[in-house]
Amino acid sequence: MDEEVGAGGRSKSSRKQITASHYENEKVSLIVAGGNRGEEEEEEEGEVCVDGNAPSSNDEGIASPLRHREQQRQKGGAGVDFVEILSATGRKQTPSPPSTASGQLRQPDATSNANAPASIWHRTLLPDTENVTLQMMGDEWPIFETQENGGGSAFVIKLVKFILLTFALIALVHSVVSRYFDDRDQSLTMGQIVKFDGDNIVRDCVVFFVVGRMWRQCGVDHMAFVGTALLANVYFESQNYMGFLQHSLTLYEMNCTWPWELWVFVSVLIPAVAVMVAAHVVRAYRTRVLVMKLIELALCVLFFMAPMMSSNYFHLHHWYGGWLLGMHANFDTWWSRFAMAWCFGMYVNGIAVYGRDPVLTCEYAYFLTMDLRCPYVSCYLEALQHPENATDVVEMIPVDWRNCSSTDYIP
């Protein structure tokens, strides 16, 4: 037989095809492709899960098949490049786990992976166990919903763990800050955070989790993520000892109150942030997801930022900045995961120290008060109508950032 050469520069005769009789009631073909790959792909830096829950095979789940084949080759060992299971209808099937002689399913041993971390930095505190069930009345009752094809519920478990971790870190940071620091909202309690901001925090976590592709990570309850988030809190609380950092990111303060030391600090910080952003852009371009990333960023700005930016009361709280930026640092590389964890710690610090204050500050509070017709606002409205009878009441007018001598309300 004449040897045919495929488009990838590899002999088709080097492929060995093994046909199995049945696989889940469908005829399948196992194609074992040998030989060396002709294309060079960028080496992935994905983390290895210690608890046996492997992350995504690529950054976005849509990277090129060549990268997927390379990763499968690396996992399969020497002499085997890629094992692909195809049904008779052309659809890919998921192979069942290997079984032992006794017929019991054999679970993969993550500790046997040569690439597994040697330390505990990426070991999750709680396992991302799939198909969690409760034994009751002689039967198994699932606690989390599973997929129809038998897939696990690790997505839900990781999301629940992330939400619980967020509240736990907020409580921890709030407890420490309220005991040792004065630069905080001294009337704020943890009970008030849960009561008034708890539902918003949960929604923040869901958006951060989905946009940040966190279900593809080996969980977030490991020391690499938690330690980086706590390190960010140490940094932000250390600003209490640097007076020139005691300012907000508003047009009025930038124009009127920022000292020169803060401008020097920002001139160093901006290039560092620019390098991190450029690294993400380059990574997105090389993995051909740059357009998708730009669309995601544009949608987040459109939904979460654009409606408020025109307001004179707009205040970029650091909980808001950390949340908005951190979810987009979602590549499976150490520096991207570090940026996400740092921004997450920034989010936690902002809420634990000052509360989840609205981005529109008093304008939002005033809207709710007027919309709900709260009775206490009647005194304010009456005083505005008859200022001669109430000299202590001043109308809430936002400060003009161009006028540094203004005494109006500073958001």
Which value, in Å, is the CA radius of gyration?
28 Å
How many E-type strands?
Answer: 5
Structural class: mainly alpha
Shape: globular
Helix content: 40-55%
Q: How much beta, percentage-wise?
A: 5-15%
Distance between the termini: 80 Å
Q: What is the mean pLDDT?
A: 75
The main sheet orders its strands as 1-2-3
Model regions low in confidence, pLDDT < 50 over at least 5 residues: 1-44, 56-66, 77-118
The biggest sheet, with number of strands, parallel, antiparallel or mixed sense and barrel status, is: 3 strands, antiparallel
Number of helices: 12
Order of helices and strands: EEHEEEHHHHHHHHHHH
Task: Draw up the topology in text.
Layout (H helix, E strand, L loop, with lengths): L14 E9 L2 E8 L31 H12 L5 E6 L45 E4 L2 E4 L11 H27 L9 H22 L11 H16 L12 H6 L3 H27 L3 H15 L1 H4 L8 H9 L7 H21 L6 H11 L5 H9 L26
Antiparallel strand pairs: 1-2, 2-3, 4-5
Helix pairs in contact: 2-3, 2-10, 4-10, 9-10
Describe the structure in your own words.
The chain is mainly alpha-helical and 411 residues long. Helices cover 44% and strands 8% of the residues. It contains 12 helices and 5 strands. The protein has helices spanning 65-76, 154-180, 190-211, 223-238, 251-256, 260-286, 290-304, 306-309, 318-326, 334-354, 361-371, 377-385; strands at residues 15-23, 26-33, 82-87, 133-136, 139-142. β4 (133-136) and β5 (139-142) form a beta hairpin. The model is unreliable at 1-44, 56-66 and 77-118 (pLDDT under 50).
